[in-house]
Amino acid sequence: MTEKEKMLHGEYYDATDAQLQKEQMRAALLCRQLNEISPAEPEKIDETFCELVCAQRGSVTVRQPFYVDYGSNITIGKGTYINFGCTILDVCRVDIGENVLIAPGVQIIAATHPIDPAERLTGKEYGKPVMIGDNVWLGAGVIVCPGVRIGNNTTIGAGSVVTKDIPGNCIAVGNPCRILRTI
Predict the structure, then answer these.
(1) Which of 108, 99, 106, 102 is nearest to 134 (CA)?
(2) What whole-number distance in Å separates Cα of residue 78 and Cα of residue 61?
């Protein structure tokens, strides 16, 4: 099994693997290119964005800057709006539904490290997929942690740290994020 296959399956992998380094460099260059495009050229922004992530041309709005690890592991549904300063660490799948609002400074993190310091010192990492349903609103500065699922029609309040799954049709806030009420 290649290091990339291990990474995508959520197993320990070596992030210094040549193939992974090449793919990260591709993403870094595309992020740089995307972030340097004039806001007066929305078609060029859209073209570069869709080369970076899996999204249908003309279906997602992204405000720069935008950062990813690989980009190729991110799927974004139509009607989604990504505001300034979004970072997505996509060492595993990151699926973002349709009509999602991502406020400024949101971080969606699929990457993680071993808790045990001795294991961490080996340099191995792993990831857990993140899934965000349709019609979700992630408020400013939200952090979505590895392995989290957020259900459809849910609002996550600004500054929340989502460490566990949040069901659909609710408002959730805090650190750690907890359900405030259903809607």
Answers:
(1) 99
(2) 9
Distance CA 147, CA 135 (A): 20
Q: How many residues can be counted in the chain?
A: 183
Catalytic one of 26, 63, 113, 149: 113
The predicted-structure confidence for 14-54, as pLDDT tens digits, reads as follows 999 999 999 999 999 999 999 999 999 999 999 999 999 99
Catalytic status, residue 9? no
Give the closest residue to 122 by CA, choosing from 14, 3, 24, 18. 14
Q: Cβ distance 131 to 98 under 8 Å?
A: no
**pLDDT tens digits, one per residue of 10-21:** 999 999 999 999
Cβ 135 vs Cβ 112: under 8 Å: no
- Predicted local confidence at residue 21, as pLDDT: 97
Please name which of 124, 100, 121 lies closest in space to residue 112, comparing C-alpha atoms.
124
Render 103-166 in DSSP notation, one character per residue. -TT-EEE-EE--SSHHHHTTTEEEE--EEE-TT-EE-TT-EE-TT-EE-TT-EE-TT-EE-S-B
